[in-house]
Design a protein that fits this description.
The protein is an alpha/beta fold and 410 residues long. The chain is built from ten helices and 17 strands. The chain has a domain of 265 residues: Metal-dependent hydrolases (TIM Barrel). Strand 2 and strand 3 form a beta hairpin.
Length: 410
């Protein structure tokens, strides 16, 4: 009996010794952590072990294989861009469906702090498997997709007007076949004054149990956004390009005033997504809307070749733009992390809880004089700019702008 007791005490001592002396893979020290899910807005240390967040505290004294001094930086969850276009390929005249206008994500995400993207309708039920095999399988960025209600995806032109290729049952069937990748249904660019495409997209969302993202293309006479947002869409569905001002569609701001239906829609749970893009963000809409209290639920880029070199540029630029026209820093981070994670029902993402995937972005908030452009060519001056200094994806450094993780050459 005495021998068993001694063995038990010896085992406890060994375990305690190994635990107390245990180091971590990465230690991020002295950064100002903003983690909206956990209501953290303070200088904290973060430890990463085995690709997960292993500890977050005011001071962590454990040894680390690599230590990052984040003094003066904001440390936030990896950003989630829920509206981009990543079904890249070489097919002629196929727009954002396996063609040249879509972009491989890795070249455009990590440098802005983005670790997760959602392709917004590039593929439909006919070609999602091809999209998955090409882009998902060859991207380090975490990827999800909204499946287009058009079976052939976002091919532009007549293909996106083909109501006969909008099959709710088949769309939902493929969405349920790939639940780990498909997080919603997309309706975009439809140009006629009928509700059939909307109804079919919503039906597909109901059958698959996932939200619908809508981008009205324009029509004459106009389709009513009030009807769309208050009657057709369900709470949790998404209106993207919420500050757009394209011809042939209604706008949330008319004559300088936010329309009452917009506030009512957001109150009933309709998601207002920025979706900046190359033609869908104007200061004439965004500035008065935000000033009057119609703030976005999510910030996204609508990244493609037509937007990345214009006023949009990248995720950090869109976030900076909104920061300079009325959102607080905490609101900007919330709309780029925890809110989008909830919108796409991926609640394991968008936060820095212990056990969460170690997707982390380190951002500087630079002060100076900066110019921000909308899609109409108008400019505002801002005094703040977010710049991504470092990005971790699953605990690995995938972007390091100024060599924070490196030692100086002697």
């Amino acid at each position: 009996m005495k021998q068993k007791l001694l063995y038990f005490l010896f085992a406890i001592c060994c375990f305690a010794s190994s635990t107390l002396g245990q180091g971590v893979d990465v230690l991020i020290k002295n950064g100002h952590v903003i983690d909206p899910k956990n209501n953290i807005d303070a200088v904290m240390d973060i430890a990463i072990t085995n690709n997960k967040i292993s500890e977050i505290a005011q001071k962590i004294s454990k040894t680390a294989k690599k230590t990052i001094d984040a003094t003066g930086l904001y440390v936030v969850p990896g950003l989630i861009d829920i509206h981009g276009h990543h079904y890249f390929g070489t097919e002629q005249d196929a727009y954002l469906s396996d063609s040249y206008a879509a972009l491989p994500p890795d070249g455009f995400t990590f440098r802005s702090g983005v670790t997760t993207v959602v392709d917004a309708g590039g593929s439909g039920w006919r070609n999602f498997a091809d999209f998955k095999n090409k882009a998902f399988a060859n991207s380090r960025t975490r990827m999800f997709a909204f499946l287009n209600i058009v079976g052939s995806g976002m091919r532009g032109g007549a293909a996106e007007q083909n109501v006969s290729d909008m099959d709710a049952k088949l769309t939902a069937m493929v969405a349920k076949q790939y639940p780990d990748q498909i997080v919603g249904i997309k309706l975009a660019h439809y140009m006629s004054s009928e509700w059939t495409p909307t109804d079919r997209a919503v039906k597909a969302g109901e059958l698959a149990g996932i939200p619908v993202m809508v981008d009205f293309g324009g029509a004459e006479p106009l389709l009513s956004w009030e009807t769309l947002l208050l009657e057709k869409l369900r709470p949790g569905d998404i209106i993207t390009h919420c500050y757009g001002q394209t011809k042939g569609r209604m706008h949330v701001v008319e004559n300088g005033k936010v329309q009452p239906y917009a506030f009512a829609a957001q109150k009933r749970g309709i998601i207002f997504d920025v979706g900046h893009g190359g033609g869908s963000f104007t200061f004439e809409q965004a500035v008065p809307a935000i000033k009057q209290g119609l703030k976005p639920n999510s910030i996204s880029t609508d990244l493609h070749t037509g937007s990345m070199n214009g006023g949009m540029k990248d995720m950090s630029n869109v976030m900076s733009k909104l920061l300079n026209i009325g959102l607080t820093l905490n609101e900007v981070i919330t709309c780029s992390t925890w809110n989008p994670a909830q919108i796409i029902n991926k609640k394991e993402l968008g936060h820095l809880s212990v056990g969460a995937p170690a997707d982390v972005a380190l951002l500087s908030l630079d002060k100076g004089t900066f110019g921000y452009i909308d899609v109409n060519g108008f400019k505002i001056a801002g005094d703040k700019k977010l710049v991504c200094q470092m990005t971790f994806r699953d605990g690995d450094i995938v972007w390091d702008l100024n060599g924070l993780a490196n030692t100086y050459y002697k």
